[in-house]
Amino acid sequence: MIASEQLASWLGDRDRQVRSHAGVQTFVETWSGSPLMGELHRDLEAMDDPSPQQVLAAARTFLDRAGDLDALMQALIARAKADPFFIPPMHPLTSEIHNGLLLFHHKHLSIGMGVTGVDMLAAKKSKRRGPASIGFTGVWNLFRYVKAGGATVSFWETDKIGPDFSAETAGELRLTGRRKIADGEEIVIDGSYQSFIVDHATSDMLYMQAMVRAGAAPLTAEYDSDSRAFIGATSTDEASSRVQMMATLLREMGREDAVPVLRESMNSPHFYTRWHIMRELLALDAEAVLPDLKRMAANDPHPEVRAAATQTLSMFFDEDEQAQEAVPCPA
Q1: Residue 331: pLDDT band with limits 50, 70, 90
Q2: Cα(122)–Cα(97) distance, rounded to whole angstroms?
Q3: Is the pLDDT score of 329 beyond 90?
Q4: What pLDDT does residue 128 have?
Q5: Cα(234)–Cα(213) distance, rounded to whole angstroms?
Q6: 136 Cβ contact partners less than 8 Å away, ≥ 6 residues apart
Q7: Which of 73, 149, 249, 321 maximizes the CB count within 10 A of its CB?
C-alpha cells in the first residue's frame, strides 16, 4: 500500500498518533458517561429477570430522547472532522445490505443505528440464483425508521419456536402481509415466530434498531422462501454455544479425564446442547457413558433427542452388551 501524503505524515508523527488515540478514549468516556447511556444502563440493571416487554419499554424511552442522541452523534461527527484519523469507538454492524454502528450494549439489550443501502439491496436481489431464505432470529427486535426510503416490506410468520421445537413439527412459512412503510414508523418483531424482509426501496433507509435478548427463544430458524419449508436452526444461547465448542475441543484432544465434567453439563436446558455433549462423550469413552445414553433414550424431554439416542443404542451397542451393562457384577 502506498500511503497518502497526509497518512504518511501522521504515521511519522508520534505525537499526532498519541493525540488521535487520546481523542478516542476521551470520546468513549463522554459517550458512556452521558446521562442517556447511564440511565438506560441503570434501568436495565434494576430489572430482575425482565420480560421482553419490559426491555422494549426501556429501549423506547431511550429512542424517544432523540435530542440527547443527536447531541452525542454531533459530537462524534465533530471529533471525526477535527481529526481524520479518529476512529469511532463503536463496533461496526455490517451485512450484504446493511452498514451500521453499535451504540449501546447490555446483556438484555443492544441498540444500533444503521443504513440499508438501496444499491446494496438491488445488487443482492439481482445476484440471486434460486430460492432465498427467510430467517427468524428468536429474539425481539424493534426497528424505528428515521427514513423509510419508500420501502415495501413483506411480513412472515411460522409456528412459534419453543423448547420443544423440532424439524419434524417446525411448520411452514406463511406470508401475513405486504405494505409500504413510512418515515418515523416503528416495527416490532417477535423473532420466535415473526420476520420481515425489504422487498423494494427507492432510496437508502436510515433506522434505529433495538435487539432484546431477554426471553429469547432457544433457536433461530430458517425457511426456504419458495417452498416455505424449514431449512435449519442454530442456537441463540452464547453460553451453550461455548459449552459445545469446549466439548468438541476436549474430544479432539482426547481428554478422557474430562468425561466427568462433561457429564455434569448434560443437565443443559437446551436439547441440542445435551445431544452435542453426548456425541462428544461417546467419542471419548463410549463404555463409560452408556448408562447416560440409555437414560437419554428413555427420559430426555425432547423427542428428537430420545430418538437419536435410541438409534445410537441400536446401531452401536448390541443387546448382549446393553444387558451386560445393566446386570451388576456378582463379585
Answers
A1: very low
A2: 9
A3: no
A4: 66
A5: 15
A6: 158, 161, 191, 192, 193, 194, 195, 220, 221, 222, 223
A7: 149
Length of the chain: 331
Q: Which residue has the cell 481428554?
A: 255
Mean pLDDT of 19-26: 90
Q: d(Cα 183, Cα 154) in Å, to the nearest integer?
A: 17
> In the beta sheet, which residues pair with residue 325?
none
- Cα 44 to chain centroid distance, Å, stands at 19
Is the Cα dihedral 298, 302, 303, 304 positive or negative?
Answer: negative
46-58 confidence digits (pLDDT tens): 998 899 999 999 9
Residue where the block lists cell 433457536: 219
> Backbone dihedral region of 217: left (phi > 0), alpha (psi from -120 to 50 degrees) or beta?
beta
**Integer Cα distance of 229 and 43 in angstroms:** 41
Q: How far is it, in rounded angstroms, from Cα 25 to Cα 133?
A: 41
Cell output for 109: 439489550
Return the amino acid letter for 228.
R
CB–CB of 162/138 below 8 Å?
Answer: no
The three grid cell numbers given for residue 299, joined into one nine-digit string? 427420559
DSSP string, 145-213: EEE-TT-EEEEEE-S---TT--STT----EEEEEEE--TT-EEEEETTTEEEEEEE-SS-EEEEEEEE-
CA distances from 328 to 315, 323, 325 (A): 24, 10, 7
State the cell numbers at 306: 430420545
**φ, ψ (nearest 5 deg) of residue 228:** 65, 20
